[in-house]
Specification:
The protein has helices at 2-48, 51-58, 61-67, 72-76, 86-103, 112-132. With 133 residues, it is mainly alpha-helical. It is 80% helix and 0% strand. The longest helix is centred in the N-terminal third of the chain and has 47 residues, at 2-48. The chain contains six helices and no strands.
Length: 133
């Protein structure tokens, strides 16, 4: 009788541990897949914003302020950015903060250096996202 009780308890413990381990693995896989999708979305949006580089290089600053698009991926996933690495978060927030700044500018001719800094921040963010994958 004592052996049956010990077997029952041992079987329950093994079953519980297996269930917990399986649930954690499934959670971890889903989290990794979600982060991969998030990185891919940011990579796509950052690549699509490459026209900022071209316009800054050609000196079309006034047109640039009028044509900068609303960052859809950033705004849609602002809650999930914290799940990325610290370096990714830092570079993304730095770039998108400046992107909002450039959208709000009326007279940008005297701020050309900052526009070129934004170009560098976009490239740094794109590089950081690619390195993590």
């Amino acid at each position: 009788m004592a052996g049956a009780i010990a077997g029952l308890i041992l079987g329950s413990i093994i079953g519980a541990v297996a269930t917990i381990a399986g649930s954690y693995f499934l959670f971890w896989r889903r989290r990794q897949a979600a982060l991969a999708h998030l990185r891919r979305a940011f990579k796509t949006e950052l690549s699509a914003l490459s026209y900022i580089d071209e316009m800054a290089d050609s000196g079309d600053y006034e047109i640039l302020t009028q044509t900068v698009e609303k960052p859809v991926v950033y705004e849609s996933n602002a809650d999930d950015i914290g799940h990325l690495s610290g370096e990714e978060v830092e570079t993304l927030v730095a770039f998108y903060t400046d992107l909002y700044w450039i959208r709000d500018q009326q007279d940008i001719e005297d701020k050309k250096e900052r526009v070129h800094e934004i170009v560098e921040k976009r490239q740094r963010a794109l590089t950081t996202i690619r390195e993590v994958e």
